[in-house]
Write a structure and sequence with these properties.
This protein has about 375 residues and is an alpha/beta fold. It has 12 helices and 14 strands. The protein folds into 2 domains: about 210 residues, Isopropylmalate Dehydrogenase (3-Layer(aba) Sandwich), CATH 3.40.718; about 140 residues, 3-Layer(aba) Sandwich (Isopropylmalate Dehydrogenase). It has a 10-stranded mixed sheet with strand order 2-1-3-12-11-4-5-10-8-9, with helices on both faces. The structure holds 3-isopropylmalic acid and magnesium ion. Magnesium ion (MG) binds next to helix 9.
Length: about 375
């Protein structure tokens, strides 16, 4: 791996730029205090890019994304762009990045941090210690399948259609990501589909089973129908370690899982491409909370998910496990000290804004220096 680490920052819309500012302070701290530096580019994406350039993802931004070792993404979207047609919405930026860079494995951890166990709407005993990883396929399935569209029938009615489609290859490569992760965790994978009603789901089940038997006999595999999985996640989420599933089911189940933690503002994600011949892979990291237009610009947003996304970036794109773990530990200590942004406020805690929360993480990092 070359010494230069090229990062592309895409803060986007809503609270994106505010929470990204706190990551920039962490990047700056690493440079000053740890001698770890990055080549940084920053660009517009989503609504911000629509305003400036008339498109949610310009060709220039896509070029920067292709050239970067890793992309740190904020959030896109907001009411100002809700009226736009399907093909021009801010959200198209993220779908295009996934497709163009081949970002097929979307990793969405759902972790209950101990100081936040009472933030969940579920009883503490159900969620305490939760540490689940959803691996969502993110460049295939019904999101991208052809044919798709809306057609007019001879009688004047309309017919809208999309296609759920998966090949052996697509299922195997996302399966490998899940099994490899499981080996570093509790060695348990739950594969989720609807093989009782969908042929593509049956193929999914068969391919995942064959892959486990051939390459991962040491990993325990269960198959769960997607509806049952949603129920089980609320009933007893601790039963899950790694979940691997399709694009659409992963979209739904990861929102569900995030709410088990009670703190959407805490959850990062990583979306990874295939490892290329030079050993590198495209990768994009983003908080899962979205642009939160209702609180944008008020300095109250929780920056921790963006900071934790940066920690994932260090771990997966640069193999900097040590620094990633230090940042994660600093976040937990900042919480333990009783500081809370509004979204995770608890009785007796001190309510702080985006900047103070970011500063608290920096202070904890500073304390961890030898
Ligand atoms: C997500 C989002 C996206 C998706 C939207 C914004 C296109 O919901 O990342 O989960 O559906 O994949
Ligand atoms: Mg979603």
């Amino acid at each position: 791996m070359s010494a230069r680490k090229n990062l592309l920052l895409l803060p986007g819309d809503g609270i994106g730029p505010e929470v990204m500012r706190e990551v920039k302070r962490v990047i700056d701290w690493l440079d000053r205090r740890r001698g770890i530096s990055f080549e940084i580019e920053e660009d517009l994406v989503g609504g911000a890019s629509i305003e400036a350039r008339g498109t949610p993802l310009s060709a220039r931004t896509l070029d920067l994304a292709r050239a970067a070792d890793a992309i740190l993404f904020g959030a896109v979207g907001g009411p100002a762009w809700d009226h736009l047609g399907f093909a021009n919405r801010p959200e198209i930026a993220i779908l295009t990045l996934r497709r163009e860079l081949g970002l097929f494995a979307n990793l969405r951890p759902a972790i209950v941090y101990d100081p936040l166990v009472s933030s969940s709407t579920l009883k503490p005993d159900i969620v305490r210690g939760l540490d689940m990883m959803i691996v969502r396929e993110s460049t295939g399935g019904i999101y991208f399948g052809e044919p798709r569209g809306v057609e007019t029938l001879p009688d004047g009615q309309k017919r809208g259609f999309n296609t759920e489609v998966y090949t052996t290859y697509e299922i195997e490569r996302v399966g490998r990501v899940a099994f490899d992760l499981a080996r570093k965790r509790k060695s348990r994978v739950a594969s989720v589909e609807k093989s009782n009603v969908m042929e593509s789901g049956l193929l999914w089940r068969q391919v995942i089973t064959a892959l486990r038997d051939a390459e991962y006999p040491d990993v325990a595999l269960t198959h769960v129908l997607a509806d049952n999985c949603a129920m089980q996640m609320v009933r007893n989420p601790l039963q899950y370690d790694v979940i691997v599933t399709t694009n659409l089911f992963g979209d739904l189940l990861s929102d569900l899982a995030s709410m088990l933690t009670g703190s959407l503002g805490m959850l990062p994600s990583a979306t990874l491409g295939e490892v290329r011949e030079d050993g590198k892979r495209h990768a994009l990291y983003e908080p899962i909370h979205g642009s939160a237009p209702d609180i944008a610009g008020r300095g109250v947003a929780n920056p921790l998910a963006q900071i934790l996304s940066f920690a994932l970036l260090l771990r997966y794109s640069f193999a900097m496990e040590g620094v990633a773990a230090e940042i994660e530990a600093a976040v937990v200590r900042a919480l333990r000290n009783g500081l809370r942004t509004a979204d995770i406020m608890a009785p007796g805690a001190a309510r702080v804004g985006t900047g103070v929360m970011g500063e608290a993480v920096l202070r904890e990092l500073e304390k961890s220096l030898p």
